[in-house]
Amino acid sequence: MTNTKTNTTQVYIINGSPRKNWNTAKMCESFKKGVTDAGLKAEIINLYDLNYKGCYSCFACKVRNGKSYGKCNYPDELKEVLEKVSNSEGLILASHIYFGEVTAQMRAFMERLLFPVYFYDEAGSKIPPKKLETAIIYTMNVKHDRFNAWFVGTDKSGPLGLFEKWIEMTYEKPEILCAYDTLQFGDYSKYVADVWDVEEKKKHNEEEFPKELESAYKAGVKMAERIKGKLN
C-alpha cells in the first residue's frame, strides 16, 4: 500500500551556484535522482533566480508574541521558499566555493533560514520547525588536501567548517559531498588560465567527476530512506 505521507514529502535542494548546467547543478540533479528513485519527491531551487537579500535585522522574528516569532516573514521572493524548506523533511545546500566560502547567495539564504529559529532567551534556545535531514554539496577548483586544510580547518575552525557547524547545531548532521578540482570552463583556450594543466584537469574530470556524481546519487537514496523510516 502506498504511504500518503511519503508521496507528499518534499526534499529541497538549494543550488547556490549561478550556473544551472555546470558542476554544482549536475551534483544537485544527481542527488535529486537518488531521492526520486527511492520514492520521494524532490525540488531544486536556484537561488540566483530569486530577488532577495540576507537578514535585514528587522528582528520581527524576535518580537515577543509577534506574528512572525521564530520565522522570517520579510516580503520578498525568498519568503515562500523559506516556508517550504522549513516544513519539508530534507534540505540539501549546494554551492561552489568562492574565496574559501559558499557563495553570497547561499550565505544570505542561511541568514534568513537560521537566524529566526535562534532565540534570545536565557537558555539560548533554537527551535526549527523540523529536525531536517541535511546534506551539503561543495564543488571547487582545488584539490582535496587544500580544501580540508584551508577551508574546513582543524576542528572545523575554517569558514566552511563553521558553516557546517551551524547546520549540525540546527538540524541533523549533514552528509558532506564534494567535487574536487573541477573544470571551470568548457574551453580553457578562451580564457587567461595558464596556471592550470588543462589536460590534467580534463583527465581528473573524466575519471573522478562521474564517481562524485554517483556519490551524490547514493546520498540522495540514503536520505530518502532515512526520511521514509521516520514517517513510517
Describe this structure in words.
The protein has a single domain (4-231), classed as Rossmann fold (3-Layer(aba) Sandwich), CATH 3.40.50.360. With 232 residues, the protein is α/β, with parallel strands linked by helices. A 5-stranded parallel β-sheet has the order 2-1-3-4-5, sandwiched between helices. Helix content is 41%, strand content 13%. It is built from 7 helices and 5 strands.
Strand-pairing-aware structural class: alpha/beta
- Which range best describes the helical content: under 10%, 10-25%, 25-40%, 40-55%, 55-70% or over 70%? 40-55%
Specify the biggest β-sheet. Answer: 5 strands, parallel
Strand and helix order: HEHEHEHEHHEH
CATH homologous superfamily caption: Flavodoxin domain
The fold-level CATH name is: Rossmann fold
Which strand order spans the largest sheet, edge to edge or round the barrel?
Answer: 2-1-3-4-5
Q: What's the CATH class label?
A: Alpha Beta
The percent range for strand residues is 5-15%
List the main descriptive attributes of the protein structure presented here.
5 strands, about 230 residues, Rossmann fold, single chain, about 40% helix, alpha/beta, five-stranded parallel β-sheet, disordered N terminus
Topology of this structure?
Elements: H1 4-8, E1 10-15, H2 23-37, E2 41-46, H3 79-86, E3 90-96, H4 104-114, E4 133-139, H5 144-152, H6 159-170, E5 175-179, H7 198-231
Parallel strand pairs: 1-2, 1-3, 3-4, 4-5
Q: Nutshell version of this structure?
A:
The protein is α/β, with parallel strands linked by helices. It has helices at 4-8, 23-37, 79-86, 104-114, 144-152, 159-170, 198-231, and strands at 10-15, 41-46, 90-96, 133-139, 175-179.
